[in-house]
């Protein structure tokens, strides 16, 4: 069993991935070597206003997104959705 405090994990701050705009903050809380599963990562990103991650494919993984504040726009299977908190 692995227990971690997410707030004590080193964050990575850098350019957005997949050709997106701006700088994002990213934490990898658990990674594939932490368990015996097809699950590859549990983490979270903070995207400040004006940042983006360009449309890209995830063939062998699933992602969950939580909009905590502001508005998020996401494209899934060619369909654009918007969430506002």
Structure description:
0% of the residues lie in helices and 36% in strands. By secondary structure, it is mainly beta. A 3-stranded antiparallel beta sheet has the order 1-2-3, with no helix packed on it. Strands 4-5 form a two-stranded antiparallel sheet. The mean pLDDT is 86.
Give me some keywords for this one.
85 residues, mainly beta, three-stranded antiparallel β-sheet, globular
Question: Can you describe this structure in just a few lines?
Answer:
The chain is mostly beta strands and 85 residues long. It is 0% helix and 36% strand. The chain contains no helices and five strands.
Task: Walk me through the topology.
Blueprint: E1 12-15, E2 23-31, E3 41-46, E4 71-76, E5 79-84
Query: Which term fits the overall shape?
Result: globular
- Number of H/I helices: 0
Average pLDDT over all residues: 86
Question: What order do the SSEs take from the amino end to the carboxyl end, as H and E?
Answer: EEEEE
Major beta-sheet overview: 3 strands, antiparallel
In the sheet with the most strands, the strands line up as 1-2-3
What is the number of E strands?
5
Estimated structural class: mainly beta
Query: What's the helical proportion of residues?
Result: under 10%
**β-sheet strand percentage:** 35-45%
Q: Uncertain runs with pLDDT below 50, 5 residues or more?
A: none
Backbone CA Rg: 14 Å
Q: Between the first and last Cα atoms, what is the distance in angstroms?
A: 35 Å
């Amino acid at each position: 069993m692995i227990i971690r405090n997410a707030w004590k994990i080193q964050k990575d701050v850098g350019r957005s991935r997949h050709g997106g705009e701006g700088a994002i903050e990213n934490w990898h809380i658990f990674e594939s070597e932490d368990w015996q599963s097809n699950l590859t990562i549990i983490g979270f990103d903070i995207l400040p206003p004006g940042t983006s991650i360009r449309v890209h494919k995830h063939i062998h993984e699933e992602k969950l997104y939580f909009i905590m504040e502001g508005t998020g726009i996401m494209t899934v299977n060619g369909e654009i959705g918007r969430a506002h908190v």
